[in-house]
Amino acid sequence: MKKRVVVGLSGGVDSSVAAYLLKQQGYDVIGMFMINWHETTGTLSGDCPWNDDLIFAELVARKLDIPFKTIDFSEQYGKRVVDYMFSEYEHGRTPNPDVLCNREVKFDLFAEAAAKLDADYVATGHYCRKEELVTLGGETIYRLLAGADPNKDQSYFLCQLSQKQLANALFPIGHLLKPEVRKIADELGLATAQRKDSQGVCFVGKIDLPKFLQQKIKPREGVIIEISPDYAGYQLNVNGKSQHKTLELLSMPYQYSDSDGKVVGMHDGAHFLTIGQRKGLHVGGKAKPLFVISTDVINNVIYAGQGDDHPGLYRKALFIKNDYIHWVRPDLLLATETSHDFLVRIRYRQPLQKASIYCYSEGLYILFETPQRGITAGQFAAWYEEDELVGSGVID
Questions:
Q1: Whole-model pTM above 0.90?
Q2: Does the active-site annotation cover 159?
Q3: For residue 50, is pLDDT > 90?
Q4: Architecture of domain 315-394 in CATH?
Q5: Taking residues 157-181, what's their average pLDDT?
Q6: How many C-beta neighbours within 10 Å does residue 324 have?
Q7: Which candidate in 48, 128, 159, 202 is catalytic?
């Protein structure tokens, strides 16, 4: 009897080819389109961001001759992803809704819906791979591996998946390069063959972030204070400190006060800006562009520095609290008071960085070989052993 798999057809070329490959491999394939967002306030893609996607998904299902269904998760998506997104920005943090969307929707709600269709697996068009290991005790362990295409690897977006979620997941295009995927779609005559990749927030689309956030967070005028690159607060004295204390000091975000710099402009709300951001400051007349180096949402102050090389943009360490640590491979969990070298990224498509992870009772510290630009609270750090993603956590 054929194994049944429900594919998340998004209306893009990747999921289209994923469905085709699964059918070629002998699976009983069902295509399912998720409607997760109806609100259009702040979106840049017209009156109905998902409507075109639905049309393309239907065309692909018809071409592949597979059953096609739609399902509406908008209420749950709003509670699990969008409300979280608003809350994080309100508290001066910068969330990654795409990571949450995969954990909470695509591999949870969607998987539950697929199970009701008697599916054995769920599949997506992510550029990543899965392998299975069997321990000496007979336990099966699932490995989440980077996609074969280094320019499209999307393992980072799946950094919060559990072993249970991976067990029933398939990633049919993870071994392919993007041009190969497009070539397959083109040869099949799929409507999505030359369609541009989607951008923006998962299921919402491209957004004007301040306008989007103003649905729940009111604009509030505040000052922009420029901090000199010579500001003394960047010089941390860790001489004679214990390893634990050194890591604690290196991972702390830089703190500023009004007296540390000078007012150079105004902004519409500290909640709407994030560390490393250049757009939205609207301050001219500087030798170098200004970048956000810190946000104070309590006092509604933005601190900025000139140039991409400003020391306020760079830190050598970060901290993740125990409650926000997730091991994709629980069997590789580090014991307290131990450390291990990993490759780490703190944002999608960032080249992997050499780092060491140190575990303590309060959480873990990641110490990078070289200082990292734009370490931002609320974002996810993901750590790898070679090309395997083994854990992740929310930056404090």
A1: yes
A2: no
A3: no
A4: Beta Barrel (2.40)
A5: 98
A6: 17
A7: 202
